[in-house]
Design brief:
globular; four-stranded antiparallel beta sheet; Crp/Fnr family transcriptional regulator; Jelly Rolls; Arc Repressor Mutant, subunit A; about 240 residues; transcription; 11 strands; HTH_CRP; alpha+beta
Length: about 240
């Protein structure tokens, strides 16, 4: 059923509900996020927000993708994540009211569903039980972050790469049953996410390709066998 007074089309509402977090939220919170939100469009390279900017609410990519990271003083880029449809983000600043922790830059033409901070906080304060849902979103990402930190210390690069590809394919846990087979993830960005050189990332990718796990495409990675990818990542 379409949400009363929603700013989202029925098709977009249905698509948003495919996200594990949004789909598990109570209908009242779903309705509020749909009614309070608006779609914003970004051109490739345009910033949604920058590190240190004031919090502007909860967001969800509905088309395209965002690179989340930071520009270092020496001009190099740190890439922490790649946000695709229909992943929600911005919950840290929503919870603590502090500035944004990283930059979010459009990777090609991108559309983002934006729920304003003041209106959403007012709704949550009036319906405080739903703050727990926002906390669940933050905790899910924190668990993944802890796992990745442990991986850096203990796993060889090829396994770490396979695990990161598995997470990207599953939308960092938001698509547990519907992994993406085509990942629009250039090797340069993947290397940045892993904190290694492009040459090292390419070598590990070629090794996985030789094992029949994936195929390298121009600017993208095709996952041939997700089950084998999970085994290579040590997740089976």
């Amino acid at each position: 059923m379409p949400t009363p007074n929603s700013n989202a089309s029925p098709a977009l509402q249905a698509a948003l509900r495919t996200d594990a977090w949004f789909g598990s939220c109570a209908p009242a919170l779903q309705d509020a996020l749909l009614a309070l939100g608006r779609a914003g469009r970004l051109a490739g390279g345009e910033r949604l927000f920058t590190r240190g900017a004031s919090a502007e609410g909860l967001c969800c990519v509905t088309a395209g993708a965002l690179r989340v990271g930071a520009l270092q003083p020496d001009g190099s880029e740190t890439l922490l994540g790649y946000v695709e449809p229909y992943q929600w983000f911005g919950e840290i600043s929503l919870l603590d009211g502090l500035p944004r922790t990283h930059d979010a830059v459009a990777d090609g033409d991108t559309t983002v569903w934006q729920v304003p901070q003041a209106e959403l906080r007012a709704w949550l304060d009036a319906n405080p039980a739903h703050w727990q849902d926002v906390a669940r979103l933050a905790c899910a990402k924190l668990r993944i972050a802890f796992t990745m930190l442990e991986d850096i210390a203990h796993l060889p690069l090829e396994q770490r790469l396979a695990k990161r590809l598995w997470w990207v394919a599953h939308g960092n846990g938001t698509r547990p049953d519907a992994p993406r087979r085509q990942l629009r993830l250039p090797q340069e960005q993947l290397a940045l996410m892993l904190g290694v050189s492009r040459q090292s990332a390419n070598k590990a990718l070629r090794a996985l390709e030789d094992k029949g796990v994936l195929k390298l495409r121009y600017g993208a990675i095709e996952l041939v066998d997700v089950a084998t990818l999970a085994r290579a990542a040590g997740l089976d």
